[in-house]
Design a protein that fits this description.
By secondary structure, the chain is α+β, with helices and mostly antiparallel strands. Strand 1 and strand 2 form a beta hairpin. The longest helix is centred in the middle third of the chain and has 24 residues.
Length: 110
Amino acid sequence: MHTSVKSVDHLNDLLKKLGYGSCLQKCKLHKTKCNKIINNVVAPAFLEEVLEDVGDSDYALIVDEATDVSATKFMGVCIRYFSKKREEMITDFFGIVPVTDCTGKRWQQR
């Protein structure tokens, strides 16, 4: 119940209570809108920042496949690179991609 996105419902209730009589009383932010903000605003901004930091430097991709309880397969991707900004090696989460075909056949471009 208390993952970072699910706690938004509690935060919204608290803001309405503490912000009574202000614009916070009319605040409507729940899990669905919070997920949309993360997926459509925050994540693309972070991705752009990582790509800018990597630039044309060398990097390594770390890839792993996992299956959830509904038997849906996903591929997780991390990137490891030397950050010139921070002057240290960084390993950063790059994304999760649904796997549609996981046979041993080689993929061929048509």
